[in-house]
Amino acid sequence: MKYLKYYISTLTLLVGLYLCLIVQSGPTILLLGFSLLIILGDILISEEDSELHYSHPFFLNLPMYINFPLLVLFLVMTISLLSNNVVGSRIISEYLNINLSKIRDSFYFFDKVSLVTISSLFIGIMGTVPGHELVHRKKRKFDIFMGNWLLSLSWDCAFALEHVYGHHKNVGLRTDPATAKRGENIYAFIFRAILKEQKDAWNIFLNQIRKNKFSFISIKNTMLIGYIRSLSITIVAYAVGGFEGAIIFLLCAFIAKSLLEVINYTEHYGLVRVPGEKVRPHHSWNSNSLMSSIYLYNVTRHSSHHEKSSLKYWELRPYKGAPMMPYGYLAMLYLAIFLPPVFHKLMSKKLIDWDNEFASKNERKLAEKQNLSSGLRLLQKNSQAVDMGL
Fold this sequence. Notes:
Helix content is about 70%, strand content about 0%. The chain is mostly helical. It has one domain. The termini are far apart. The mean pLDDT is about 90.
């Protein structure tokens, strides 16, 4: 059972294909069911804070590898159902004996929105998250290869460079694109993070060229190769659904990339670190919620991941004494996107606790500056009270 639980994402993709192709309003049912499964599961099921030992790593890697072809298949289905191009419809109709035209005609507007949303969510959770896991394995070529292909589904080749060589070094600093300031607008953060990650990734790559002395035009140019991977998937989307198909894929890729930035937003929101000081467990928000941990391959144990990024996901340790999110990952993601005032209110209380219980003296000074400029009354009042010695 301890191995099988990590195949839940594989099972979810297969169930998703069935619901969307067979069941009336399948995409909407899938989106609601998937969201409730994780959010309510996190609330109702006991937290997963045990450390299990595994003897067969192949069976823990396999679900991440399987996710890529299943996600491509899910994308082909999505494009075929939402575009009017006959190629995608013919492929599915011939091999699965399913009348796509009939299914397409049965969709309401909210079914179409749900299909784009769940496709993007699946790319983010079943694609980007295992991609994140695999690109940290610098000495395992096949894992790097698969990780980059999974990231290509969200046009995110920059992540493999900036995250591994930039974010892990700069987390908690003002220079880190993945660390949100206190009170920072989530939508402004998404665009700021995406643009700065691209810029930082290219700077890291150009430094690698100068250090290792290889040509810009070569197979070692991981940025260009990454763009080519994503372009190849875009071409497949065009072949399946024409211009509409390419646009649908690019929209899903952008939403999936944005969801990654929302996860980054919640993982380090408002946390500060003094430049030059070591990254410690209190520089990440964690969660031991069961469903989030299983679906996200234990990235929820984020302090352990930052402490030693080379650890496999099943080796990450739950830090019971580390800063904890109020709810599981998906609940926090939805709150940040759809109810920012509620998110900020919840996290303001958490940040005050962080300042008092975890922050060093110098970190408190940095935190107080952010509190005063955050625009959040609770944080501002707390800092003013501290300044007055109350």
